[in-house]
Design goal:
This protein has one domain: Roll (Thiol Ester Dehydrase, Chain A). It is built from two helices and five strands. Mean pLDDT is about 90; it is low at about 140-145. Helix content is about 20%, strand content about 35%. Belongs to the 4-hydroxybenzoyl-CoA thioesterase family. InterPro entries: 4-hydroxybenzoyl-CoA_TE, HotDog_dom_sf, Thioestr_dom, YbgC/YbaW.
Length: about 140
């Protein structure tokens, strides 16, 4: 996994409260970093599609997270949180996550979301317009997403 594999990037500096006494980031914080990245991904997706209000991801619920740790982040490191939508299904989508320090991969993973009704949590199809906005944002041909 290389930083160049991702269109989206968000910088995040490791805060003191996220590290132990040796300055190493506690592993539970990496999922929070990925979540911040997803939020900022949607913010940038919306900025790339002015006038649309259906690209917030508010109807998506996380159903699976997987993180693989390669190297530790340290207090005050400037991290590069990188994400891309790696799969768009009928009602689900997957983000590939890479957390880097410079060019060094620290953590890689995947977060799978399902679009669902807010009340019943039953899956709903992802609208075609949402999928197209993702494809354009990712600069991926429809047959590849």
């Amino acid at each position: 996994m290389q930083p160049s594999e991702f269109r989206f990037s968000y910088p995040l500096r490791v805060r003191w409260s996220e590290a132990d006494l040796q300055g190493i980031v506690f592993n539970g914080h990496y999922l929070n970093y990925a979540d911040v990245g997803v939020t900022e991904y949607y913010r940038e997706l919306n900025a790339a599609n002015p006038g649309r209000d259906d690209l917030s991801g508010n109807e998506f619920f996380a159903v699976k997270t997987l993180l693989e740790y390669r190297a530790p982040a340290m207090f005050d490191d400037l991290l590069d949180i990188r994400l891309r939508v790696s799969r768009l299904g009928n009602s689900s989508m997957a983000f590939s996550v890479g957390i880097f320090r410079h060019e060094t991969l620290l953590v890689e993973g995947e977060i799978v979301y399902v679009r669902a009704d807010q009340q019943t949590r039953r899956p709903l199809p992802i609208p075609a317009g949402f999928k197209e906005a993702i494809r354009q944002f990712e600069q991926v041909a429809p047959s590849e997403a």
